[in-house]
Amino acid sequence: MRAKETPTDPIDNMIVGECREWAQEKLANLRRYVDITRKVRAKWNTYPDSESTYIDLFCNAGRMVDLQTGEYTDGSPLVAWKEARRSETSFSRVLINDIEPTYVSAAEARLRRDGANVVTSIRTAANAAQWVVDTVNPNGYHLAFLDPFNLGVSFHTIATLLKIQRIDILLHISSFDLARNLPQANCEPHRSKMEQFAPDWEKHVDARLRPERMREMYLNYWVHLVEEKTGRRVSPRWRLVRGPNNAPLYWIALIAGHELAHKFWTEIDKSEQQRSFGFY
Predict the structure, then answer these.
(1) CA distances from 224 to 40, 72, 170, 218, 238 (A)
(2) Sign for the pseudo-dihedral over CA of 156, 158, 159, 165
(3) pLDDT, tens digit, for every residue of 37-46?
(4) Overall average pLDDT of the 263-270 stretch
(5) Are 32 and 252 in contact (CB under 8 A)?
(6) CA 149/CA 13 separation, integer angstroms
(7) Rounded to an integer, what distance in angstroms lies between the CA atom of residue 42 and that of residue 46?
(8) Of 55, 96, 172, 268, which is least packed with CB atoms within 10 Å of its CB?
(9) Phi, psi at residue 153, to the nearest 5°?
(10) Which residues, in sequence order, are bridge partners of residue 63?
(11) Percent of the chain, pLDDT > 90?
């Protein structure tokens, strides 16, 4: 059987990631948030001994190809960098990480070509989170974008990033993966995946309930866990992204400590047509 060819961008002949059409909606949310926080970056960029950073723990290759249309577009690190540069409030540094070295190399090259000051890491997300804490200026403002495959971010990873005083996190939570794993959560590997995202969840979720109610309890518990353990707030406005046949794919949630961040997220949500989904 012939091996699948690795896709490359005809513009620079470097590797690209693969996506579906709905990826553009999640990137649009990132772009809007980078834009609406431009004055925050501008402020912290002018302070002495300070900085603003963009953090991407699942950076992929920086460019991607739509498997349906064949169109090549920017991935999350380039979307964030270019939007910040457009408003003349560029990030001081861009921190990128991925477990795949070829992705990190391609994303770094593309960002540097566009003028970004890039710092790279090739680690699991859990290990990269501590690297971020050790690398960023604690006196700065930081934006992290976490776009894992399925429920690929552990609670520990999120809690580690939230040790940073001024950090906003945009997190993708897979509705599809929850729907698949919750009904089978009494066996492996489903139990471990659910436990990684929300430790001790089985003590707080009644497995006898119908799947929809289980999901609601599970996510409510996760929100409570984040807020109790880290002192940061999870916005009640979760942006729902849908796929084929209007099926829910994932939510985009904001975690932040400053009330201004939640105000910004609310403004973005209100500018759309009732796309949010709340759990509490």
Answers:
(1) 28, 39, 17, 10, 15
(2) positive
(3) 999 999 999 9
(4) 91
(5) no
(6) 25
(7) 6
(8) 268
(9) -115, 125
(10) 74
(11) 71
pTM of the model: 0.94
What whole-number distance in Å separates Cα of residue 190 and Cα of residue 197? 11
Cα separation values, 52 from 5, 77, 221, Å: 38, 14, 32
Q: Show Cβ contacts of residue 230 under 8 Å, excluding neighbours closer than 6 positions.
A: 158, 159, 162, 255
CB-based contact 146:172 (threshold 8 Å)? yes
d(CA 173, CA 164): 21
Tokens representing residue 42 in the block? 């501008």
Give pLDDT, residue 92. 97
Say whether pLDDT at 178 is over 50: yes
d(CA 225, CA 7): 40
Which tokens is 235 given? 């916005």
Q: How far is CA 68 from CA 16, 18, 72, in A?
A: 15, 10, 11
How far, in Å, CA of 117 to CA of 132, rounded?
15
**CB 9, CB 224: distance < 8 Å:** no
User: Angle at CA 63, nearest 5°, toward 91 and 6?
Assistant: 145
**Rounded to an integer, what distance in angstroms lies between the CA atom of residue 174 and that of residue 248?**
9
What is the spatial distance between Cα 217 and Cα 174, in angstroms, rounded to a whole number?
15
Closest to 131 measured CA to CA, from 140, 142, 119: 119
b vs e for 110-124, b when ≥16 Cβ sit within 10 Å of the residue's Cβ? bbeebebebbbbbbe
- Which residue has 């001024």 as its token pair? 166
**Pair of tokens at residue 33:** 């948030």
Q: How many residues are given for the chain?
A: 280
The chain-wide mean pLDDT, for the chain, equals 91
